[in-house]
Every structure is written in structure tokens, then in C-alpha cells.
Amino acid sequence: MAMILDAFVGRSIDKLLEFMAEETSMVLGVKDELKKLQRTMERMRGFLESAERKRHADPNINTWVTELKDIMYDADDIIDLCMIEGRKLLEDDTSRSAVRHPLSLFSCFSCVKFRHEIGSKIRELNDRLKQVEEDRSKLPTLEYTEKDVQVRGVNHRQTFPIEVESDIVGTQIEEAAESLVESLIREDNKKYRILGIVGMGGIGKTTLASHIYNDERIKENFLIRVWACVSQEFSETELLQEIIRAAGGSCGEAKTKAELGALLSSALSKSFLIVLDDVWRTDVWEDLLRSPLKSARASGRIVITTRDTNVARNMRAEIHPVDKMDKDSGWKLLRKKVFGDDDEEEEISSLKEIGVQIVEKCDSLPLAIKVIAGVLRSKDRSTIEWNKVLKSDVWSMSQLDEELPGALFLSYENLPSNLKQCFLYCSLFPEDCIMRRDELIRYWVAEGFVKRTQGDIIMEDIAEDCYRELIGRNLLQPYNDDAWGDLPGNRCKMHDLLRSLALFLTRDESIFLGGEQSSNINPLTRIRRLSIGERVEVPHAIKQQKCLRTLMLPSSPETKMIENELLERLRFLRIIAVNGTQIERLPESIGDLLHLRHLNLDGTNIRYLPESIGCLVNLQILMLSGCSSLHALPKAITKLCNLRCLRLGGGTRLNHVPKGLGKLKHLNHLERFVVGHNDGTGTQDDEGCDLEELQSLTQLRFLSIMNLERAQPVRASVLANTHSLRTLILTSNQLEDAEEAIATRRIEEIYNELSPRSTDLETLRINSFFGTRFPSWMMSPFLDVSFSNLTSIQLNDCKSCPQLPPLGLLPLLKYLRIDGARAIKTIGPEFLGPRASAGAGTAFLKLEVLEFCLMDNWEEWSFGMVEGVGEERKGASKLLPCLKKLFLWYCPKLRALPEGLRHATSLQELDIYVTDNLIEIDNLPSLKSLHIESCPRLEHVKNLDRLQYLDVGHPTETEHLSQWLLELLQNAPAALQNLKKFTLTCSLPLLKTFLKDGPNWPIIQRIPQVRIQEYGESSYIEYTKNPPAFKTDLVESKESAD
């Protein structure tokens, strides 16, 4: 990204003030020169906002800004060096004083030499700044802006909410969406049809395709739905792998295009819809997908979005051009994005005239309208403020590519300087890249884009607010895919036009090399940030870029090492990202990168870290997740005094972490804290950490602890000071050679002392707890007070606890999974909490998803008094009012669902698997989707008036329908008035009974949509009532039903 001078200089001034307040500045003897530097920066800072704004139109200002940026980068490096070396000298003086050790002659000369060198550098810097300040007087158009103490920025905790909402507004696009859905579900005899959505960038092609993809009728008609983003730089094998996995297939060991093509044909065994978003070339169809789709076992539809009509035409697609929005639809979109659900009609009407003019300025492009809406949302709702936006001269920025609407640049210009930096940084990622929120936040923190604040608010929290505001301003798009299991807002994308804008604005300082771009770098250009995409060779010229601050290498098997010579030349690196490469080791010279803040080694083959890593005193983020070859950390890691994030999860197999980790007081993310140390023979030693190390880590937001069975008993809660903890994961493993009663009592004592004292706790996960009673802090009747913000709980393999905690007390709990609780025989009113079980109050007020898995001995489930009659039943209306999904998997002894479940009025999905003793499913009035498999004693399924989707896995050993299913389907018109789709997986003999001449054909003939398939999916029947269609691979397909 390009340096934003105003923000960068402000941060440099803050760093100077911080350093000059320390004793270290006196040790170096450079305080006077630093004060002079600070005063010059403060004088010039008032002109920087104007300079950044006008540099694009005035080459003289641009030259001045470029020169000043070079000086400021050098200043930042020098200030860094002062802080590092000054603190080192101070520590040396302190340690010598403590042992009355005199200063050696060599040390004395080294100290004097460094003071002289650093003093000379600062004086040279001041001279250069003085010359630039004099040159500024020759630029009369620069305006001075008074800088208050409170710099304009993100208003903390008053940012835009992350929402994923439809942008389908106006009859124009609504009619287009309706027409395209109808076209796609219309039956014909073609193996496949291609529909091309064509239009210019930012016009809403992807929005329209997304609306079609998520339409309920599409979901009903296409059992396989795949969304794949193609973009300009796609890899053929990776695209095939993505489509195969999305279709429910497995790639196995297949690597070639031919092997993957065959797997794709096999995976498309049911009716399918494939959306190929952002197609630039026809070869994705001609050379890659046409043959596998032609050979697929089922028929389907393909939707493409493209800017090029010729691409769609050459693919023989039915072309649907997307036009610009009309004024009325554009105003509706602007209004929706600015005002949301606000119904202040009078206020909105007063702004309509200006709003329509702004829509016209946006050329009625949806993307431009949305980003301008982000600008307007940050302004007062007044005609004065809206007119300022309308009449801004930024609309006509002449240097922009004609493809980039002026609205995008205006939206960028309206950002506070710190947000500009965050936005531009996203250009370092490939086109259409799905970016993780946590990843961006850590990069922004490491780059220094986030200003430190006083109090309990940490930089990561402020960076998260920046992320939310960029999404709220529509400059980043939230990306959600249920297959990833992410919470809304955890990932995002950047529209390619916005990315093009960011690349344009950062072209002098940052480079992304990807696709067919040349990997040549002009050695005369002072590149600060370099990101290299996949399948791009690392350029040799990189070694000449001595000013490089960020280096992101491709996630490629070809990247196997970082050369020692490379690190020796790139001494000013702040960020190194080599995640996903085959790197096995780091050179010792890594310790010379004194400015390094962020080191990402996730998913590499790294075997060990050199001890020299302890020299990286500025390192804030160390990512080692998924490093399966890494078994130990060096002791020197405890010297990383500024470390904020240490990630060791995702398959990293550490046996222990070094003692002394508790000295890293800035840690706020600690993933996989391994307790104790086992030398491999089962013997414990004192090399590893114990729980007391955690007592000093008061800033923790995320903490996962492993091997708690190794912990020594503690006297007080080790988490007593972690008041801001949000995620806690506790894991233990039962020791095979330990005496069971002693081990059980000991683990219970340890867990009791792990009571989190944070009311901010949102996620709790307990794995493999082998005590016979959950920790006392979980069994408390005051859970609703102690853990008022808990939203997600997982209790996994807690196999010895016969009673669950009163989790119904938790007021904000949304997700609950109980897995492997094998000692539980009954779940009763104690699960709800004392007030609900007594018939008063509420239980599970916000719970949306409830999952029970591997409950071998669970026999009875009841809600106690709320299942009674008369007055006692009133409390039932407050039980599970928000529950949407109930999942029961392998609960073989459970005899019945609780009667009170009928009061869960939001329950829409019930999934039951291997529940052998269940006899009845009855009276669930709101249920829409039911999946049943391996329930051999089931006798009745009834009173499911709103059921729309029925999916049954039938016993393989029988040739006849189960009686309960036969009765249900025979009564379908009356008993299942809303049934839309019936899916059955069964044996081949039973499958044949549903053919048109079979005994069960009349049963399914009345159901709107039917899919019956053999286990293993080798044979199938598909039937649609309207329009009539019948397909099977058992007999010849017919066009319509009789």
C-alpha cells in the first residue's frame, strides 16, 4: 500500500514522544536532535492532508510528497533503531550495575561508535527535512489544516454492523432475477444449458447471480449447487478441485486435469447448478469443464458472469445483459444502504432530490452507489452535507482509468487517514481472494496502522473496528459460505474495481505480481511492499529492494527455503509471510531483522526455529499453525517481549512450550499453550510451562490450553486477571498409567481453578475432560451473571460426567454442542436452570442450534414441570423460543423427544441419525425440514403441518417401506400439505418399487419433487410433478409423468 503521510507522520511523532519520555533517549545522547525532528514533523503535518489530496493533479506536489515519504520511511527506521539499541544499552548498564561489573573497553568503544552513528543519521535526517520544508513554501496551493489532539478516525464502538443483505432493489432487477430463475428451472431434454450474465464492472452481475443461486426454487430443483470464482488468474487444477469438493466429491490423490475431470463427472450425480463468477476467457469452458460436464451422470445448468459478451457467445450461452439501474431503482438502493430500516420519511424525502443527482453522478452503477452510500452514512443527514458530496471536485479525478468510476475515488478520499491505509493494504492480496478478518487485523497492527490508546482497549480491537467500518462503507464485501462454518463477517472480499483503484493508488510503493504479469521489478524503484501470487517465479531483483518492508511469498511447493543472502539485504522487513510454502528451516540471519513485526509460517514444513529468533524484540505476531513437523520451540522465544499473538494450533505437534512464556505480557492471542513436558518416555520434567505462567498474561483475548492432565495443582485461579478473555478452550487427556481415582480428583481440582473471570467470554470449549463432575464455576446457579455474554459452548468427549451444567441460564447462548457425554442417562430440568425447572423464568432464551452426538447411554430427555398441565405449562412458552435446528446423532438408547419441544416455536430443522429406540416424532408445528436415518423402532411421524423437506435414509436390508413412512406418504396430501420435496436413500430392490409400473409409484406421484437413490448413489429416480418430469438410470427417461 502507499504511505498515507498524515497518518504515518502522526504515528512517527507518537513514537518519538514515547521514546523521548524514556531513559533510553538519555542513554543515547540524541534527545535534542530528536526534539528538533519532532518539531519539524509537527510543523509540516498540517499541510499533509492537502498534499495527499492534490498530488494526483499537480506533478510538483507529487514530487514533493514522494520525497517526503522517502524521508519519513527512513525516519521510521531510525526511530525504531534508537528504541531497540537504546533499550539494549540501558539493560546492559542495569545488569552491570547489579553485579558491579565494569564496562569493558570493547563495549565502551562500541557504545560510543553507535551513538556517533545514530546521531549522524538523525542530523542528516533533520537536514533533509529542513530542505523539504523549504521546498514546501514553493507550493502555494497547499492548505494548512489545524491538527487537534483528537485526530479524525474511527469512532470506537460506534461502527457499522456487519450485515449480509440482498442488494436486489427495484422492479428492473427483481423482474430480471425472476425471469432467470424461471428459465433455469424450466425442464428440457438438454444435458446442460449455459446462461451468461453480461455487463460492465460494478453493474451488479455477481449480485444478480448470487440472488439466483440462493433462491429457494433453485435449492429445490438443483441438489448440487456450486459457486466458483474464476477471475483472470485461475489455476485449472485448483478450480476443478474446488468444484469437485463443493459438489460433495473427493479429489483423493488426483492431480492432473484428466484425473480431476473424471472425478468431476462422477461427482455430478444429481441435478446441478454451477455458477462461474467473473469469467474472462473461454478456455475455462472449452479446455476444462465442457467435457466433464458432458460426461456427468446428471443434467444441470451453468451460469456465468462476465464483462465480455464474446466470452458468453463463444460458450454458446443464453446471454442476459445487465443494464444500469434506472434513477428510481438507484435511489432505492442508495436509500436502503444509507438509511436501512429507518422510517423517518420526512427527513428522507427532503434528501431525495440530491440523492437522485448523486445516483446520476454514479452513472447508475450499483457498486458506485453502494460505496457513495458508505460516504453519506458517515455524514450528517442534511442537505448541506449531501451537497458537499454532490459538488466535490474529486468526482472528476482525471488520472483515474476510465473504467474506474469517480465515486470510488471519492469514497476513498472521504476515509480517515488510518482507514485509507487499511483499505489500500488489501491490494496486496490476489484478485477475488477471500481474506480473513483476523489475518487483516494482524497485518494492520504489525504495519502500525492502528494507533495505541490508553486503557483496556487493545490495538486488535481498534483494528477490528476499522474492518467493520470498511465493510459498513461497502469498500469490503462480507463473504459467507456455510461450508466454511464461519460466523458472519469473519471473511471478506474486495470488488475487482475497488482493488484496481487500490493498485492504482499504491503503484509507486507496492507491487502484486500474479497471473500473466511480468515478474520484472525496476531496480531503480524503491518498492516498500511486495506480494507474489501463486505460480509466479520469485524475481531475482528482489535482493536489490533494500527498502522492502513487506514480503509475501507464494503458497507454492516450489518455495522451499529463504536464502540467507536475501535476509541480509532486506534488513528493514516488517512482515514476512511464507505460509503454505515448503520451507523447512529459517536461516540464523532471521535474528538480524530487528524491525520485523509479523512472521507467518502457517502450514509450512518448518522443523525448528533458530535461537536467533529471540533477537526479534519487535516481533508482535508469530504464526506457526499447521506446522506438523515442528515439535519444539526454542527457549529464546521467551525473549520476544512485544509478542502479541502466538499461534500453534491446526496440527502443530508441540510436546511442550518453553518455561518463561509468562514474561510475554503483551500476548492477547495464545493458541495451544501446552502444559508441562513429557520427554517421550512418559516421564515429566521441569522444562515446560505450568499454569502459573498464565497469571501474568492479563491481556489475553484468546486462550487454548492443552494437556491439562500434566498441570500441577494451583492455589488460586490462574485466569483471575484475564478480564477481557473472549475465547477459552480447555483440553486434557487421561493418563493411561495413572490411578483412576487420583487422576480424576486431580483433574477436577485443576479445572475448578481455571474459572474465567471475564464477563466478555463468548466462546467456551471443553475437550476430553475425564472428571466425574463439571467444574464448580460451570455448575453455578448464577451462570447468567458470571457468563452473561457466552454465545457458543462445545462440550466434547466429557465421558464421565453424569449431569450437565444448567446451561439454560445463559441469556445469549446461540450454539450448544454436547458430544461424547457417555455417562449421561437422563437430561432433565437441571439442564434448564433452577428458575426454569421450577416453572418460572426462561431457559435457552437465544439458543438457535442444539446438537447432541455420541450419547451412548442417554435414555431420557424431559423438561420437567414445563411439560405439565394447567398453570405449570405457561412457562413452556419461554423455553427454547429461538431454537432453529436440533441435531441428534448416535443416541441409540434415547426413547422419546421431550414433550415440551412442541413449544420451541422457531424449530425448523430436525436431524436424527442412529437413534435406535426412538418410537415417535410428533407435534412439531413449525418444523420445515426433517432428516431421519437408522431409527429402526420408529412407529409414528405425525402432526408436522409445516413440513416442506423430508429426507430419509432407509434400512438397507429391507425391500419394503417402513410402516411409519408408508402411512405418512399415503396421507401426504392431508398430513403434509406443505411438503415440497421428498428424498429417500435405500436399497436397489426398494428403489425399483418407485418406478412408474411399481407398487410405490402412486405414493410419490402426488409429491411436488422426489429424489430416490441407492446407497452408494449408483442408481436413482428423479420426479417433478409440475412441470411433469421423470428421470432414472434404471429405465429409459420419459419427458413427463403420466
UniProtKB/TrEMBL annotation:
<dbReference type="GO" id="GO:0002758">
    <property type="term" value="P:innate immune response-activating signaling pathway"/>
</dbReference>
<dbReference type="InterPro" id="IPR036388">
    <property type="entry name" value="WH-like_DNA-bd_sf"/>
</dbReference>
<feature type="domain" description="NB-ARC">
    <location>
        <begin position="174"/>
        <end position="342"/>
    </location>
</feature>
<dbReference type="InterPro" id="IPR038005">
    <property type="entry name" value="RX-like_CC"/>
</dbReference>
<feature type="domain" description="Disease resistance R13L4/SHOC-2-like LRR">
    <location>
        <begin position="567"/>
        <end position="853"/>
    </location>
</feature>
<dbReference type="InterPro" id="IPR002182">
    <property type="entry name" value="NB-ARC"/>
</dbReference>
<dbReference type="InterPro" id="IPR027417">
    <property type="entry name" value="P-loop_NTPase"/>
</dbReference>
<comment type="similarity">
    <text>Belongs to the disease resistance NB-LRR family.</text>
</comment>
<dbReference type="Pfam" id="PF23559">
    <property type="entry name" value="WHD_DRP"/>
</dbReference>
<keyword id="KW-0067">ATP-binding</keyword>
<dbReference type="InterPro" id="IPR041118">
    <property type="entry name" value="Rx_N"/>
</dbReference>
<dbReference type="InterPro" id="IPR042197">
    <property type="entry name" value="Apaf_helical"/>
</dbReference>
<dbReference type="Pfam" id="PF00931">
    <property type="entry name" value="NB-ARC"/>
</dbReference>
<dbReference type="InterPro" id="IPR058922">
    <property type="entry name" value="WHD_DRP"/>
</dbReference>
<dbReference type="GO" id="GO:0009626">
    <property type="term" value="P:plant-type hypersensitive response"/>
</dbReference>
<keyword id="KW-0677">Repeat</keyword>
<dbReference type="InterPro" id="IPR055414">
    <property type="entry name" value="LRR_R13L4/SHOC2-like"/>
</dbReference>
<keyword id="KW-0433">Leucine-rich repeat</keyword>
<keyword id="KW-0611">Plant defense</keyword>
<feature type="domain" description="Disease resistance protein winged helix">
    <location>
        <begin position="428"/>
        <end position="502"/>
    </location>
</feature>
<dbReference type="Pfam" id="PF18052">
    <property type="entry name" value="Rx_N"/>
</dbReference>
<dbReference type="GO" id="GO:0005524">
    <property type="term" value="F:ATP binding"/>
</dbReference>
<dbReference type="GO" id="GO:0042742">
    <property type="term" value="P:defense response to bacterium"/>
</dbReference>
<keyword id="KW-0547">Nucleotide-binding</keyword>
<protein>
    <submittedName>
        <fullName>Disease resistance protein RGA1</fullName>
    </submittedName>
</protein>
<feature type="domain" description="Disease resistance N-terminal">
    <location>
        <begin position="8"/>
        <end position="89"/>
    </location>
</feature>
<dbReference type="Pfam" id="PF23598">
    <property type="entry name" value="LRR_14"/>
</dbReference>
<dbReference type="GO" id="GO:0043531">
    <property type="term" value="F:ADP binding"/>
</dbReference>
<dbReference type="InterPro" id="IPR032675">
    <property type="entry name" value="LRR_dom_sf"/>
</dbReference>
